[in-house]
Amino acid sequence: MTRLVDVTPFGARLRLPRAIDIGRLLQLTMAMPRQLRVFDHTEDQYRVWAIVRNVKLLEKQKPKDDLVEIGVAFIGKRPPSSYQEHPERRYEISQTKLESQVWSTREDSVEQLTEVVSTVDKRKQSRQMIPVDVVIDVFEGDQLVMNEQTVTENISRSGAAVFTAMDVAPGTFVKLTSERYNVSVLSVVRARRIGADGITRLHLEFVGSEWPL
Q1: If 50 and its partner were Cys, which of 72, 79, 128, 158 is the partner (CB 3.0–4.6 Å)?
Q2: Residue 42 has what pLDDT?
Q3: 66: phi > 0 → left, psi -120 to 50 → alpha, else beta; which?
Q4: Alpha carbon distance 90, 176 (integer Å)
Q5: Rounded to whole angstroms, how far apart are CA atoms 192 and 171?
Q6: What is the structure's pLDDT at 95?
Q7: Contacts of residue 107, Cβ cutoff 8 Å, sequence gap at least 6
Q8: Mean pLDDT by 10 residues, the chain (213 residues)
Q9: Over the range 16-54, which residues count as b (16 or more CB within 10 Å of their CB) and which as e?
Q10: Number of C-alpha atoms within 13 angstroms, CB side, residue 91?
Q11: pLDDT of residue 108
């Protein structure tokens, strides 16, 4: 349960206590004003599928405060047909909507690359071999379960590889914080691998913001 920050016929902003990845699908159920609906004008509850378009990390003052604010685009009454077979896939907007329609979607090809990051380098931006002291906070749902002070092996505006002693699985959300840069970014673990030197690395993709290089 949450509250809408704002809403239009084609999308909304809302806050959540747990992190979520850009491109994920959500089904929202809400008492949407009927004049803003695209379908189901006579139903009490408006049930609409939406795609996460952006994610903003919030500063939590209390443990029960929300972690992120997200922006979503409504895509219709039903999810894409491929969602039933592969609910883990990410999607993106495929074309410009018309005034009377919701957005349409296509599968995000990036999702297929994240599982092979250790063998095929498909990064959009080159990594800089810069060691930055950082703190990794690991989230499980809406709970902070562990943290670690470590250093980056390399970093770019959109991601980083960091040395770790933690057993963190791909798909886990973490917050990467640097006192030197005075920045915190929400990240998702795309891969975990052990290098030739025997040290484990986490390959992180930043979600919703860039690193200030």
Answers
A1: 72
A2: 93
A3: beta
A4: 23
A5: 10
A6: 61
A7: 80, 82, 89, 90, 91
A8: 93 95 94 93 94 92 89 92 86 64 57 32 70 95 91 95 95 94 94 94 94 87
A9: bbebbbbbbbbebeeebeeeeebeeeeeeebebbbbbbe
A10: 26
A11: 55
Q: Which residue shows structure tokens 């990064």?
A: 123
**Residue corresponding to tokens 């060691």:** 131
CA–CA distance, 54 with 114 (Å, rounded to integer): 19
- The confidence score (pLDDT) of residue 144 equals 86
User: Whole-prediction pTM value?
Assistant: 0.79
State the Cα–Cα distance between residues 67 and 57, nearest whole angstrom: 6
| Whole-number Å distance between alpha carbons of 148 and 111 | 27
